[in-house]
Write a structure and sequence with these properties.
By secondary structure, this protein is an alpha/beta fold. The chain has 2 domains: 151 residues, Alpha/beta knot, CATH 3.40.1280; 68 residues. Helices cover 42% and strands 11% of the residues. It is built from 10 helices and 7 strands. Strands 3-2-1-6-4-7-5 form a 7-stranded parallel sheet. Helix 5 packs across helix 7 and helix 8 crosses helix 9. Belongs to the class IV-like SAM-binding methyltransferase superfamily. RNA methyltransferase TrmH family.
Length: 257
Amino acid sequence: MCLERRRSGEEELSAAPPPVIVLVRPQLGENIGKAARAMLNFGLTELRLVAPRDGWPNPDAGPAASGADIVLAGAQVFDSVAEAVADCTHIYATTVRKRGVTKPVLTPEAAAKQVHATAGRSAYIFGPERSGLETDDVALAHSIVTVPINPQFGSLNLAQAVILLAYEWSKGVALASPPEVPLDPPADHGEMEQLIQHFIRDLDKTGYFFPADRTEATLRTLRTMLTKTGWSYNDIRMMHGIVTTLGKARKSARTAD
């Protein structure tokens, strides 16, 4: 992926290649598919699998990927973690701190910043769904990535872990922003005043303003409520129609009686 740097004075985009996602001994094809979907959501496409339990390709991966076929089609299979990351210059093990393994421990955000600052290829490695990475797997990494998480419930599934790291990485690249939906322009006060008077006329006909000595306070509350919502012209037209229709319904009910 070739990324251009922004012009001077703007935040620079990463020139480092995107990281690879390495799933170590994944157990379910469905989870591989969900991880692929999470990757493509945030612009990552290179998936590497280390000794998947049920072999590869796996028929359960495609439906779970929900259209992330480009990721699955390009997935590579390796016998060991060492082979899977042989071309990477920096390796991040996603796990809790392991006993006997002394490594820098980073948050996903800090790891993403390092990935963008690293000249070579980086890899995020994820362990099996049930047990996570083994100590020997973590020993191959340069850093450990741990998510600050609720200590009373620290269970993340594989796709959730992938999407957290992919999202943090995506902050440093130019991904397409969601299209902006233009908002209706706000109505001017004259239009709002007409609606307020419409409410007052119809409410007065129903005897709503009772007792009389509370009328002024009630009107003030009504006006405050209606003027703080930022109504558009379409909103006001619709509300006029609602008030008019309710008035007609009351007249019809009285006639029927």
